[in-house]
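Batch manifest, entry 17 of 40.
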Amino acid sequence: MLHSSPFCDGLNRGIRLFNRAHFFDAHEALEDVWRPSTRGSSRRRHLQGLVQLAVAFHHESRDNFIGARSVLDRAHRNLAGAEDSLPEIDFTRLRAELVAWQRHLANVHFADRRLRPVLPCITLRGRARTRPPAKIPETKISKTKISKK
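Output type: structure tokens
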């Protein structure tokens, strides 16, 4: 858990909601943290990436796979370099978990709930995952390389 301050409390709340798969509520909580951040700052862009991450998984939970893919791609771009402005979050782990989702959503016609990867978990550096990792089932998911934009 991050130290107590309005910023940290809001970020902690958003992360907890995200990790419980309450993506709409996570998006609202994270947006409350993003909104007062300094316009044009890297931190604001990185917070926007976290908001977009929650929105992407909200879309996916509603079977809007095209919307999920589009917003996840934007979140990925906006989270580039986020270790600098949000060093408490383990972005290396998060990005690794998102690779399977990018592949899954890139093949929207195969986006089947039975084939979906384990939901990602936002963790703090030095902390264990809040839920055990699950194996990603071998499916018809394309083996194409995900490019970084």
